[in-house]
Amino acid sequence: MSAPHEPTAPFAKMNGLGNEIIVADMRGGTARVSSGAAIALAGDPATHFDQIMAIHDAETPGTDYFIRILNADGSAAGACGNGMRCVVEALAAENGRSSFTFETQSGILTAEVRGDGLIAVDMGAPRFGWQDIPLAEEFRDTRAIELQIGPIDAPVLHSPSVASMGNPHAVFWVDEDVWSYALDRFGPLLENHPLFPERANITIAQVQSPERLVIRTWERGAGLTRACGSAACAALACAARTGRTERTATVVAPGGELLVEWRTDDHVILTGPAEWEFSGRFDPATGAWERADAEAVAS
Ligand SMILES: N[C@@H](CCC[C@H](N)C(=O)O)C(=O)O
């Protein structure tokens, strides 16, 4: 670990159901976390993360903070449900508040700490138009688009539903156990398929009952993760839209269970836990970092 250059910013290493998150406190200044810093932190096993959630001062009246989201490859993301829960957990520990209004690249969203300690994030409305996702060509019906992988006459995965939750998602429906698919091999090919001009998060989903979905996700810019909140929301919305499930279901990811509700007002509510691991300070330009003392706990 190299010595950070000044000025440094506080961060907390956290996780949302095993989705590895760094919450970076960038308030009170104009500095941003650079792509290079993100790549450096992701490449260090001690700080490896799937997303950085950078908390900035609010830009729009009526909002509390602006959240910038970076993937492990340094690219920007419009949404991160598990990361938003980590942000809420960190802010609630700091100021005792239980509800927040955030602005992100994809719009305004609200979140609250529930009485049982779980955190509910209003992820907004799913969008299904082909330009919204976006797709490179017109598909009038995005409940099942023409896309497959594997032998042409016996595809391994095919006909995904697609949706935007502020970020692009493709959901492939499977009958077999989700662990029987080589998502580490197919994920990168599908993420970068020419049909997705902004790449896409790739999920395989097995419907176990109208109230239970099992998913695995290859995340755009991060690879295989133990949970992806926006993918859980996209999978539930696509499942309900195609009559596969009810509008409320438990979505099971490798890291555990999330509750997803697609309300009648079109908003998707994602509920689950968030966990603090350790805190430190880092240089947002380079990613050089140091751990806080054992006594200096969550930021
Ligand atoms: N882990 C996230 C999604 C992260 C963003 C994604 N990789 C993208 O680039 O769109 C979640 O919990 O939603």
Q: Can you count the helices?
A: 4
Number of strand elements: 20
Largest sheet: 18 strands, mixed
SS strand fraction: 35-45%
Q: What is the alpha-carbon Rg in Å?
A: 19 Å
Shape: globular
Unreliable stretches: 1-5, 294-299
The assigned structural class equals alpha+beta
How far apart are the termini? 21 Å
- The SSE order reads EEHEEEHEEEEEEEHEEEHEEEEE
**On the 0-100 scale, what is the average pLDDT?**
96
- The helical percent reads 10-25%
Q: What small ligands are held by the chains?
A: ligand LBFN2T5F
Function: Catalyzes the stereoinversion of LL-2,6-diaminopimelate (L,L-DAP) to meso-diaminopimelate (meso-DAP), a precursor of L-lysine and an essential component of the bacterial peptidoglycan.
Catalytic activity: (2S,6S)-2,6-diaminopimelate = meso-2,6-diaminopimelate
Site (Could be important to modulate the pK values of the two catalytic cysteine residues): 169, 219
EC number: 5.1.1.7
